[in-house]
Amino acid sequence: MKPKPNSGPQMHADCTVCDTKSKGFMCSTSDAVAKKVAEVKADCSYRAGEAIFRAGERSLGLFAVRKGVVKLESLSADGHSHTVDLVGPGGLLGYRALFGEGLYKKSAWALEDTEVCFLPKQEILDLFRCHPELGLKMIGQLGDDLDRAQGKWVNQIDKGAPARVADALLFLNEKFSGTSWTRKEIAEWAGTTTETVIRTLAQFEKEGIISQNYKNFTILSFQRLLEKSQSV
């Protein structure tokens, strides 16, 4: 799947003054790198529910999220989808596929209207050669991602569904407080079923821990929700 550039005349965002500059390692290294990125990138936009890339497709480059939220999804052998990670402004998509076989291992879906900067693969590799510090920052990014993935994996083994749902609510509220979440999306992040999420949220609401409506929840007691997340 080729990146979908914005249609019509474009005013490319200036990477040196971008709101997400301090959040992503591609543009936060130096103004020289930011200027080079601005020269080679393409601005792309995706509607909520659109795929940015799909598992098995060959990598064409790197995506940096400027606005919105993107879900990285994998499918189990029985066809169930699992949310592996959620990426917001400043985050990168597809950097692992730059090397090795060059194939995406997961699919990336826009959860809301999303804007990304696309950087072609060869341009990224040239930047790594000219600016070795980017490689060190990428290693740090990989380490952070691995730590988060391991923590999520351990939680799903050690904790029951209510504790995982509580974990999910705390994480989503901290990292993506301005985003609305369906019960299915919460379930995919928590590693459980939509029905279990519905029952658990109803119980949390009954206990006065949260309030909820169609696609939003409000945490009324962080301490009690934290206690729920720490139960087995």
Characteristic key phrases:
10 strands, 8 helices, four-stranded antiparallel beta sheet, Jelly Rolls, alpha+beta, Arc Repressor Mutant, subunit A
Mind explaining what this structure looks like?
This protein is α+β, with helices and mostly antiparallel strands and 232 residues long. It folds into 2 domains: 21-154, Jelly Rolls (Sandwich), CATH 2.60.120.10; 160-229, Winged helix-like DNA-binding domain superfamily/Winged helix DNA-binding domain (Arc Repressor Mutant, subunit A, Orthogonal Bundle), CATH 1.10.10.10. Helix content is 41%, strand content 20%. It has 8 helices and 10 strands. It has helices at 25-28, 31-40, 121-130, 133-158, 161-175, 183-190, 194-206, 222-229; strands spanning 42-46, 51-53, 61-67, 70-75, 81-87, 92-93, 107-110, 114-120, 210-212, 217-219. The strands form 3 sheets. The chain has a 4-stranded antiparallel β-sheet with strand order 1-8-3-6. Strands 2-7-4-5 form a 4-stranded antiparallel β-sheet. A two-stranded antiparallel sheet has the order 9-10. A hairpin with a 4-residue loop joins strand 9 and strand 10. It starts with 24 loop residues before the first helix and ends with a helix. The relative contact order is 0.13. Residues 7-11 have low confidence and may be disordered.
